[in-house]
Amino acid sequence: MFNKIILTLLIIITLGLTLSINAQNIDSLLQRIDIATKQAIEENKQINSNTCKDSVNIKERLMFAYQNTRTKPDSSFLLLNKALSLSTKCGSLKYISMSAEGFGDYFFNLEKYSNATPFYLASLKIEEISKNEIRFANICIRLGIIYIHNEVTEKALGYYQKALSIYQKYNDTINIAGTYSNIAHLHFERNFWEQNPYIKSGKYYDSSIHYYKKAIAMLKSPENDMLIARFYQGMASVYNRTEEPEKALECIEKTVNIYNKQKNPEQVCDAMYALAITYDNLGKHQLAIKNFHQLIDSSKKYNISGIHWVYEKLAEAHYKAADYKKSHEMYIMYINTRDSIINLEKSQQILDIETKYQTEKKEATIATLIKEKRLTRVITITAITILILVIVVLFLIQKSIKTKKQLAEQQIEKLEQEKQLIATRSVLKGEEAERARMATDLHDGLGGLLSSAKINLASMKGNMILTSENVSLFNHALSLLDSSISELRRVAHNLMPATLNHYGLHTALGDFAKQVSPHDQPK
After folding, report:
1. pLDDT tens-digit profile of 76-116?
2. d(CA 396, CA 380)
3. Total domain count for the chain?
4. Which of 105, 114, 53 lies closest to 79 in space, CA to CA?
């Protein structure tokens, strides 16, 4: 007992986690579809298949996903995810819409209608933008079926009417007939959930028969026999409900004949079930029992599910035929097969839940690894960027230091040159000063003395009596003295005499006069 409680709690927890993860996945998928749609519209992508190089891959994944929804739901989900990624990559509105529709079909086939609806609506929105009216109408049909399951009559009828108007616009006979059939089925089913005066009057059943007849009238070609058989079977269900089994028998016999020609065991079994119910309603219980047994044999042969419902109806037929023992036996068979099926379904549900849980865990792990990989990539890129920036900054700093060093060396060299220039100027100034001093000494000093000596000698010549030899020598001495004075003046002139240079001719002559005149003579 305790183990059963633990198992039940584990199943509930697992189911809760699975539902939570599924809800997150659905929101994430819808967000991806919305973003992809907006991007495709902004980029003004074409919606035909030629714009998507992965169109073949997308179609294959969508087809395999649809075919394996019930047998391999996890694989189907992954295929749809890949199809959506490829559609987003190529930016094709057509394939984004088909991927959204694929998710809708996936949840629809799993009878998760509340999950299917937003995906169909997303696809419907894209087709409205793309102005693809036929696909718009096809999705409206699916939404109408969902709202029948949800027992929302007006919305279902509204979507059917939208689809019908489009099919009529294009004179699409097959889809017009199919839509009439859907509307007929809606009027039949609404009797089970609506409460209004029309229910009691049977008006909705009349409407159902009316639309089934319109659907059959649209189809004339033998290639449409399977559709016609389905419509007759629908009419038979209505007639059985309105207690008109004779009309129901007429319709269902046509259905059985068509299905037998097509050799489709599952559809034949379905029609045989309706035929047996009709015989039972007609009071032909033995014929009903016979058909039920044939149905059981065919179901076992072709491994068709739902056999427990046949045992239940067979028990009722035996009871009506007053064969209570057989009725009891068939009812026991019904209970046993039902319980075994329920247990099998529970085991399968547990297995499915566990598989989904493990799959979701793997997907979560993959998502985490992808995030970590992206984070590592971001960190690596950031580190490389920082390293490059550091290298650039160091290079600039080094270059700045080198430039400053070069400027400093240039400044030092300039200062050295200025220093040398100043020293050279100082030397030149010193030399000029020395030359000026020497010129001054020669011109003002020695030159004046020699001139004074010449004047004095000339003065002595007039007062002295000299022999002819002495006169000649004396004149020669004066001549040498003149030459010396001339040479001295030349040298002094080259050395720029200070008095003449700085004080002018007047001052220089005054100084010269003082030097020439005897010291004992008045100035």
Report:
1. 889 999 999 998 888 889 999 999 999 999 999 998 999 99
2. 24
3. 1
4. 105
